């Protein structure tokens, strides 16, 4: 049944992907001069580039190689280019339709030469956006937060947290990006490192081939390095991903709670998609935290920021999430803002601090145009205990 559902889903995605590319190609061919010798070359180059992502995913599963890497990189960039070309063509067709009914365009804008110029300008704009978005994606910001928790932590005054979500280790997020992540985190000298899901980008094979886990083993934090599953761990096989991460120094919390340094609790939820992929439900927040002493601070890692009231009702002091990428490509950030109560950034519900990170890596295109990737530097300040205050 699951294979049948996957086949239906894959077929729908492939039909949609092919239709969008056909639409872009058809309009582009119409914009080229009728007798241009470029037309055959343009058509075959377009088909090769547009097919590269699908072919790359297939070749990767057969055998990882430099050729599969090339296909994936070309195809991943094309995903972003396709998105913006699609928006451009829809906009141009809307203008054409408006002109059909209103005659708003001057005659000089309706010539074959004008159509060719429009195609050229569109290509320049889209490729400029893609290049700028790539440089934005590979230069994450450091986002600092200082939050007060109205609980004592058995004498601990502050907790320094380095947090990252949605790393998506794999073909695109490779050794250089992982080296940048680890160096940035270690420079912060955190007490604890927290990964809020999607550490691995679906397929574990490129991670193993590039030995990306070795970078994680270089992380330094006296209270440990912890993570949770995201939907991409489940897409690629959660148990294998968790085993790999734990073998490389990351303690994975799977609907489990730890008391750390006798000062605070750290809880980690299984991803929301666990039920869809495994058929087994994840624990509810109140059940997960039923045994904790709520007089101590409670930190919750939950990859997808849904039902935030549940965390507040359960007495969570800080929830850290990711998943949204805040759309990753503008203007998709407007869509994620409509779906999630908070798509990126800070929110406080009652006494509960909530932070949703747009992530360090990205899915699909190695491009960000809606926001910057980030590592989050969080300082939690706890209330001084009565005993400490009287000394």
Describe the structure.
- Helices cover 47% and strands 16% of the residues.
- The chain is of the alpha/beta class and 391 residues long.
- Strands 1-12-2-3-4-5 form a six-stranded mixed β-sheet, with helices on one face.
- Strand 6 and strand 7 form a beta hairpin.
- Helix 3 (66-102) crosses helix 4 (112-137).
Helicity, as a percent range? 40-55%
Amino- and carboxy-terminal Cα gap: 65 Å
Structural class: alpha/beta
Order of helices and strands: HHHHEEHEHHEHHEEEHHEHEHEEEH
Please describe the biggest sheet, giving its number of strands, its sense, and whether it closes into a barrel: 6 strands, mixed
Low-confidence stretches: none
SSE diagram, text form:
Elements (H helix, E strand, L loop, with lengths): L1 H30 L6 H25 L3 H37 L9 H26 L3 E9 L8 E7 L10 H14 L3 E4 L9 H5 L3 H4 L8 E3 L3 H6 L1 H10 L3 E2 L3 E5 L3 E5 L5 H5 L6 H4 L9 E4 L6 H6 L4 E4 L10 H8 L5 E5 L2 E5 L17 E9 L3 H5 L1
Parallel strand pairs: 1-12, 2-3, 3-4, 4-5, 7-8, 8-9, 9-11
Antiparallel strand pairs: 2-12, 6-7, 10-11
Helix pairs in contact: 1-3, 2-3, 3-4
């Amino acid at each position: 049944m699951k294979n049948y559902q996957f086949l239906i889903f894959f077929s729908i995605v492939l039909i949609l992907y092919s239709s969008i590319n056909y639409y872009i190609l058809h309009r582009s061919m119409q914009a080229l001069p009728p007798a241009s010798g470029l037309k055959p070359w343009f058509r075959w180059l377009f088909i090769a580039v547009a097919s590269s992502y699908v072919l790359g995913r297939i070749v990767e599963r057969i055998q990882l190689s430099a050729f599969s890497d090339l296909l994936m990189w070309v195809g991943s960039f094309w995903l972003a280019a396709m998105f913006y070309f699609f928006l451009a063509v829809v906009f141009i067709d809307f203008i054409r339709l408006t002109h059909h009914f209103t005659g708003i365009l001057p005659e000089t804008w309706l010539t074959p030469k004008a159509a060719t110029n429009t195609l050229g300008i569109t290509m320049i704009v889209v490729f400029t956006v893609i290049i700028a978005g790539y440089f934005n994606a590979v230069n994450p910001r450091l986002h600092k937060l200082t939050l007060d928790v109205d609980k004592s932590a058995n004498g601990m005054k502050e907790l320094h947290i380095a947090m990252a979500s949605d790393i998506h280790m794999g073909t695109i997020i490779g050794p250089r990006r992982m080296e940048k992540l680890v160096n940035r985190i270690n420079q912060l000298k955190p007490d604890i490192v927290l990964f809020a899901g999607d550490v691995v980008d679906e397929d574990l094979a490129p991670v193993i081939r590039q030995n990306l886990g070795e970078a994680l083993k270089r992380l330094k934090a006296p209270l440990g390095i912890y993570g949770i599953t995201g939907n991409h761990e489940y897409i690629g096989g959660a148990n294998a991903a968790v085993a790999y991460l734990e073998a490389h120094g990351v303690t994975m919390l799977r609907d489990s709670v730890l008391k750390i340094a006798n000062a605070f609790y750290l809880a980690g939820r299984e991803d929301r998609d666990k039920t869809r992929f495994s058929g087994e439900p994840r624990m509810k927040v109140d059940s997960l935290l039923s045994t904790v002493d709520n007089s101590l601070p409670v930190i919750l890692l939950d990859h997808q920021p849904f039902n935030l009231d549940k965390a507040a009702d359960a007495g969570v002091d800080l929830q850290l999430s990711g998943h949204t990428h805040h759309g990753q490509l503008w203007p998709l950030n407007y869509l994620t803002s409509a779906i999630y109560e908070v798509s990126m950034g800070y929110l406080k519900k009652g006494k509960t601090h909530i932070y949703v990170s747009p992530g360090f890596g990205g899915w699909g295109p190695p491009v960000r145009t809606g926001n910057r990737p980030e590592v989050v530097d969080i300082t939690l300040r706890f209330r001084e205990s009565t005993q400490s205050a009287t000394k």
